[in-house]
Amino acid sequence: xxxxxxxxxxxxxxxxxxxxxxxxxxxxxxxxxxxxxxxxxxxxxxxxxxxxxxxxxxxxxxxxxxxxxxxxxxxxxxxxxxxxxxxxxxxxxxxxxxxxxxxxxxxxxxxxxxxxxxxxxxxxxxxxxxxxxxxxxxxxxxxxxxxxxxxxxxxxxxxxxxxxxxxxxxxxxxxxxxxxxxxxxxxxxxxxxxxxxxxxxxxxxxxxxxxxxxxxxxxxxxxxxxxxxxxxxxxxxxxxxxxxxxxxxxxxxxxxxxxxxxxxxxxxxxxxxxxxxxxxxxxxxxxxxxxxxxxxxxxxxxxxxxxxxxxxxxxxxxxxxxxxxxxxxxxxxxxxxxxxxxxxxxxxxxxxxxxxxxxxxxxxxxxxxxxxxxxxxxxxxxxxxxxxxxxxxxxxxxxxxxxxxxxxxxxxxxxxxxxxxxxxxxxxxxxxxxxxxxxxxxxxxxxxxxxxxxxxxxxxxxxxxxxxxxxxxxxxxxxxxxxxxxxxxxxxxxxxxxxxxxxxxxxxxxxxxxxxxxxxxxxxxxxxxxxxxxxxxxxxxxxxxxxxxxxxxxxxxxxxxxxxxxxxxxxxxxxxxxxxxxxxxxxxxxxxxxxxxxxxxxxxxxxxxxxxxxxxxxxxxxxxxxxxxxxxxxxxxxxxxxxxxxxxxxxxxxxxxxxxxxxxxxxxxxxxxxxxxxxxxxxxxxxxxxxxxxxxxxxxxxxxxxxxxxxxxxxxxxxxxxxxxxxxxxxxxxxxxxxxxxxxxxxxx
Length: 749
Prior knowledge:
Methane Monooxygenase Hydroxylase, Chain G, domain 1; 2 domains
């Protein structure tokens, strides 16, 4: 029996390692997004500062492992078997949920995943125990009071962080404006002193000050003289910042890098329990059972030892810190999650990765109305002065690809660290993910980064992310509870099955993520470069290349799907038809996204060119969409026909259509090539040949109708009608191809 639990413990520790990779992929956004979004330094430099913070925070961990040991459940009432079942179920549920969110690039909270996972698994076992033993109740089995306080604090911090982020950013922009170098002569030192003091307080309170390695006497002295220390730190740091400013050092860059270090340290020190707390608690439980069970059965040995405070080995913490650093440096998923938060905070009206929603539209409309009412009572001269402070014409960015400036990055980091410090003082376990994300959203709103053109999309993004957090809570609770019950009754077989399921799901998730990113990487920087380029003529040249590529890709895609559909019909291959259906459905959103991107860029080209080419741009994009919609109309009846195993196409019909299929392939390949190269020497010839093929399709259609009228039986009516639809949609495909080619040529002229 011990061997079985040894295997479970080893797998738990393996999941801990993977959990560190997955968790860092998700939570790296907390301390990297500000520095990365503002381009405060090279990405490698930012990672170095964050890595040092992670290592120090891990080694100086404050013993938060007690949350996993007895923060949610009361282990004295649970047996070794029950505790191990709970821990195993929580880890399986957490890894699956966090990896799923990371794969779609949505930030979520590992704290919520842990708390609700433990609560769900413990609740399921507690329910079974109360049924068997009525003398037990939930208050005895669950630490419900502490769990409730953690949950309330986490969710209340959402509004708190958003409001403070908005307010402080608005005040900061009033002081510095977007041209911060012009207005920072006397204010920068004071701002730097406040920021340095707040971050120093954050580092020492959250990290070194609560470290078990610090002498108790020194800790007591610091706590007793904290106000004096803060005053001295503020005075000295203000003078130091003024000296740095005189030597032309960018104070905001210093603050951003220091804030990155501080938040990384806090993340490692406080969130480490989310990743290794449960596996280490399982290891402690196993060691206690082996040492003290004396032959007792696993379901008879009670886990009173978990009521003691955790004594985590510094070696374990150091190893965990190193793993987190490696994960942060190498994880592509971490970069994807950072991109989500940076995109939602972005200063310019760029690539909106979220769509619109009715809730977002209602919220935006309400605040627009409120803003008009408030604006009506503010004197015109005051409004003019406020607007001048938000004039983006003089914005100072570190490079052309920066999403926002260093002022916002510094404010976001300082406010995040101060709020987490306040939460620590009041013993509120605030989620670093919640605080940093909502501060970033509040600061971007105050910075007028959410224009009328982008507000609905970004509010939708915030709602989606917050909704993701709530989904995490519910999913973690339910999934952990169900898995725990299955393991409880399924025994060894269920445990082995879940091990296989976890490994298989992680391999599949990793493969799908790589495929998804491979298709996105090509366009990641091109659009941002076009939006940042200041020369309208250069923007026009880049847009021409981009539109040419979009049109040619769509043309090639349409031809590929046409061949898949016809192949599926002729050979009754449901696999080809299903693939075509998946591909055509998946193509809809990227096409809408590209259209919006290119429309935004079109506004930045020379005005006369934009006016002249606007019509042809939209006609071309409409042709792209019609190509996709036409193929979907062709596919739907074909797929239903083949799925139901109805009569196949006769060899005669297949032979009639074969020359048409070849002609369509030749024409579309020629059209795609001309669009791709921008050379339209055979433009008229392609249009003429397309008309000829359409005429041939009309002849085939007339011939098929005559056959149907001459037929004495209706047994082939279904397939004959289907064939007529194929002929009709093939004609429409050629019409859409002609429109696309014509629009592409006119747009490029």
